[in-house]
């Protein structure tokens, strides 16, 4: 399995990866001009030691590449990990890469995330952000319908602008933004992936991005079973 469906129309796909748990161990061992040819218990213990003691540079020698299709509100939360990874990793630069589809160039049919009636959440009790329990079905149904009507109106205006000859990069202003699905490639070191997972698997993370984080973990764990386990809190 290299693809997992998320939300109503989204997905995460494992595109490629570089290295393995053995790569992590050998990246650390090069300090002593040593190298293993196959993963052994000694390598696993070394990976555990590196993670436990915060020696994280060897985890930046392995990379994972994903294709992600998610609502814009998820994508913009995710993007901060690319911006922040250089500071967090202490490298002065980042191995992370992000390439996203753009409606300056494409005019494929817009797709939107629309929560079902039973998926709308109420305000949290003690926080300015996050969410609480599921609201009553009648309230959820009302807002699902209103969101669908709002999206339909925006799409009609977007298509009308295109038909009038307005350029795609301006016509997209009519599209409701936060629920609009976007597609991108994310390539990141295992350390960056684990940093994302530690924060977005947390109980207080937004529910939608939690679902994507669970998919990232499920796809990554078979590739780096020891490395990812040791880096997760």
Automatic annotation (TrEMBL):
GO biological process assignments: dTMP biosynthetic process; methylation
PROSITE patterns membership: THYX
Stretches that traverse the bilayer: none
Entry EC no(s): 2.1.1.148
Keyword Coiled coil: no
Keyword tags: Methyltransferase, Transferase
InterPro entries the record matches: Thymidylate_synthase_ThyX, Thymidylate_synthase_ThyX_sf
Enzyme class: transferase
PANTHER family named in the record: FLAVIN-DEPENDENT THYMIDYLATE SYNTHASE
Protein name: FAD-dependent thymidylate synthase
Species of provenance: Paenibacillus monticola
Organism placement in taxonomy: Bacteria, Bacillati, Bacillota, Bacilli, Bacillales
């Amino acid at each position: 399995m290299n693809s997992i469906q998320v939300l109503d129309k989204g997905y995460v796909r494992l595109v490629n990866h570089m290295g393995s748990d053995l790569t992590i161990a050998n990246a650390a061992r090069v300090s002593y001009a040593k190298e293993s040819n196959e993963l052994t218990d000694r390598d696993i213990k070394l990976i555990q030691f590196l993670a436990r003691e915060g020696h994280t540079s060897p985890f930046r020698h392995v990379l994972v590449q994903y294709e992600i299709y998610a609502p814009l509100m998820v994508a913009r939360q995710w993007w901060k990990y690319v911006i922040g990874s250089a500071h967090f990793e202490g490298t002065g630069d980042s191995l992370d890469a992000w390439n996203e589809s753009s409606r300056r160039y494409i005019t494929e049919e817009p797709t939107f995330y629309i929560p079902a009636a039973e998926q709308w959440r109420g305000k949290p009790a003690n926080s300015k952000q996050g969410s609480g329990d599921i609201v009553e079905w009648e309230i959820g149904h009302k807002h699902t319908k209103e969101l669908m009507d709002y999206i339909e109106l925006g799409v009609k205006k977007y298509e009308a602008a295109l038909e009038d000859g307005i350029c795609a990069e301006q016509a997209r202003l009519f599209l409701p933004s936060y629920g609009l699905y976007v597609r991108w490639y994310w390539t990141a070191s295992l350390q960056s992936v684990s940093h994302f997972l530690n924060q977005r698997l947390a109980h207080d993370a937004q529910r939608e991005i939690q679902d994507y984080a669970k998919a990232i973990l499920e796809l990554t764990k078979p590739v780096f079973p020891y490395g990812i386990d040791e880096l997760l809190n």
